[in-house]
Amino acid sequence: MNTVPKLKLDRSMEMYEEAKKLSPGGLMGIRRPYNFVEGEYPIFIERGYGGHIVDVDGNDYIDMLCAYGPIILGYNEPEINDAVKEQLEKGFCFSLVQEVQNTLSQRLIDLIPSAEMVVLAKTGSDVTSIAVRIARAYNGKNKILRCGYHGWHDWCVEVHGGVPQAILDLTVEFPYGDLDALEATLKEHGDDAACIIITPVGHPLAAPVVAPPEGYLKGVRELADKYETILIFDEIRTGFRVALGGAQERYNVTPDISVFGKAMANGYPISACVGKTEFMKVLEKQAFVSSTFFPNSLEMVASMKCIDILQRENVMDAVWERGTTFMNEMTRLVEESQVPASTSGIPPMPFITFEKADDQYKQRRTFFYTETIRRGLFIQPYHHGYICHRHTDEDLKNALGAIEEALKATHKAYPLKK
Q1: CATH for 10-75+315-413?
Q2: CA 133 to the chain's CA centroid
């Protein structure tokens, strides 16, 4: 059925078999092969450049997964590399902090509407958990009202093995885009609701990314105020990609606390919890957060240089413009293909969703992604893609060509059942 040959992945598969003897599952979480197309996708990467990655077998791909979001500029950015090397000469891990902590914190305060004070950490899960701890410490309430994916810690994890039921019972999920459902949840749990935490550009679990409906975020803000609970925006994906100030800047709704990560430093592990002073101050005495590695400065220096480039080269405008063109063309290709699918997401984060039009939709999806990876386009069946700054016009043209050919092959292999 396939129109192009399977990629040579011998070395990747050998290394995977070795890895499974060394680590549970060989590798963790969403990077495991079953999240792609097993036997068709590489498992180990050798290097990256621009908007491309090269696997250990030498296959070169246009990478539109961008390390699940951190690569906002491109791989192997010389200016960031040079800044990090310069900092290496001074050292980066000490018993005390270095000056760049203040410099970066002020930069974030200047950029992000909700930022009056900053806590720097390493991962998205770090700062979402810091944010809810702040909320609980501030108002003495226990329950967390959540919408979207917020990390792997006990209060927000979806696979419940190893998490006490008493902790799970303190987190209540509500659907994205439905203010009535949120108010009903607040009426039921509001007396003990420490916070509402939401991905402002919707990322419901196991569903496509969606732009906020008109007035939705404003309505969420109003409900948080009405029921006297703290509003947290999880901007791990949207910060430094939807806008430098995050979705809160683009959609003009300011939360009490927000968290940033992923694209902050073009791949270096750093995240930030920012918020209004009255809430953040609880970390001085009422709540405790600490880590040996939170103050490490290499990531801070990388973030400063990343922000320099984002501002200097007007990256957000460029990504939105090119992403809009890409998404419009991708939508046209899907609509003309007669494949039961649709496009979703926003221009910096495009995705193709395969509709449950018949009992072949899973096979159709698997076949399509097999066809795209064989054509050198690295996208993921279950996760939206990303546009990065170093994706060239030729990259995006070739990506669309791979999508067009894969759609044609998919329609031929799995026509819609009447």
Answers
A1: 3.90.1150.10
A2: 22
Nearest-10 crossing angle of helices 315-337, 297-312: 80
Domains of the chain, by residue range, sit at 10-75+315-413, 78-312
How confident is the prediction along the chain (418 residues), in pLDDT tens digits per residue?
456 899 999 999 999 999 999 999 999 988 999 999 999 999 999 999 999 999 999 999 999 999 999 999 999 999 999 999 999 999 999 999 999 999 999 999 999 999 999 999 999 999 999 999 999 999 999 999 999 899 999 999 888 899 999 999 999 999 999 999 999 999 999 899 999 999 999 876 656 788 999 999 999 999 999 999 999 999 999 999 999 999 999 999 999 999 999 999 999 999 999 999 999 999 999 999 999 999 999 999 999 999 999 999 999 999 999 999 999 999 999 999 999 999 999 999 999 999 999 999 999 999 999 999 999 999 999 999 999 999 999 999 999 999 999 999 999 999 987 7
φ, ψ for residue 19, nearest 5 deg? -65, -35
Please name the CATH architecture into which domain 78-312 falls: 3-Layer(aba) Sandwich (3.40)
Structure tokens belonging to residue 416: 């819609």
226 Cβ neighbours under 8 A, 6+ residues apart:
186
Closest alpha carbon to 255 in 245, 265, 241, 244 = 245
Contact (Cβ atoms closer than 8 angstroms) between residue 411 and residue 75 = no
**H or E element at residue 368:** helix 361-374
Q: What type of residue is 54?
A: V
Q: Whose CA is closest to 392, among 52, 41, 151?
A: 52
Strand-pairing partners, residue 62, are: 52, 377
For residues 11, 367, 34, 206, the Cα torsion angle rounded to the nearest 10 degrees is 140
Contact 354, 368 (CB under 8 A): yes
DSSP 151: -
C-alpha span between 400 and 280 (Å, rounded): 45
